[in-house]
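Dear Dr. H.,

I hope your travels went smoothly. While you were away I took the liberty of generating a structure for the chain from your last submission, since the lab meeting agenda had it listed for discussion. I wanted you to have the full record in hand beforehand rather than looking at slides cold. The sequence, exactly as received, is reproduced here:
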Amino acid sequence: MSRAARLLELLQALRRRRRPVTAAALAEELGVSARSIYRDVATLQAQGARIEGEAGIGYVLRPGFFLPPLSFTEDEVDALMLGLRLVARRGGRELEAAAAGALAKIEAVLPPEAAEEAAASGLMAGPAREAPHLAVLRRAIAAEQRLRLDYMDGKAARTDRVVWPVGIGFFETAEVLVAWCETRRDFRHFRLDRIAAAVPEGGRYPRRRRALLAAWRATQEMEGS
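The corresponding predicted structure, in token form, is as follows:
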């Protein structure tokens, strides 16, 4: 393994942990000596990585540091490009701009020959219908904010719902909002193309989104068992 690749692996190993990890444990995971870990940590710190700790105690990577990718395999480049192209097609204007920016950054750090191959990739994303109210829903999810939906069900009946938005699923045939519904007092799935209006109701919902998401996932596991 080259030193550049090892630095990236070390950074990834630190990112996976929220608590300090010793140089010995990192050395065993990466197949190098503890002395190499000490040197590599010092190198990353010099590059701006917020790694705290010291020899004999352990190291932890604080949030907020992004290191440009040092290398990608051909398959990894294809996966990144296809994923971002799909987001640009289905994610609304804000995510379309973000995907375009991410694509430009990835192409900028690739070797010239790899950048040319990525630009000419045969993996393409076709056009998709616009997802209504996506920007409003994304902001509500990020802010853990209650929403009032004017919704039309599968029988074309209009209903008024106050929901706690948890996440959005992008499926082949539809985009779906996962939310806790105050009316049904349970999780419900709302197709975005059936939402006539989505308006912030005011105030944060009483449970944290992570807890709600975990509870929803548990219901999916029970239904699939």
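Two observations you may find useful: The first helix runs from residue 3 to 15. The two ends are 42 Å apart (CA to CA).

With kind regards,
E. W.
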